[in-house]
Write a structure and sequence with these properties.
Order of helices and strands: EHHEEHH
Shape: elongated
Strand content: 5-15%
Largest sheet: 3 strands, antiparallel
Structural class: alpha+beta
């Protein structure tokens, strides 16, 4: 596997998370820290980002659909 450095936009696209969430996870030690590319530029190792994504638990699609449906029903009942 070829390792590359990903810029923040690429990390956002791969994870679906905004920068504020990514940096919060980094501070909490729950997401890989960036590495320095230059004095003012950072990037993330693609292998570390991929490993983080692969470590996320899968959601049971049936359960996710049921929870989404229940939420919609609850919102519809509210005046």
């Amino acid at each position: 596997m070829e390792i590359s450095l990903l810029r923040i936009k690429e990390v956002q696209a791969r994870t679906g998370l905004p920068p504020s969430s990514l940096y919060g996870l980094i501070q909490a030690g729950q997401f890989p820290a960036p590495v320095a590319i230059t004095a003012r530029t950072v990037g993330w190792r693609s292998d570390e980002v991929t490993a983080w994504i692969e470590a996320r638990p899968r959601v049971d699609r049936g359960l996710a659909r049921a929870n989404f449906s229940k939420r919609g029903e609850q919102e519809a009942k509210q005046p």
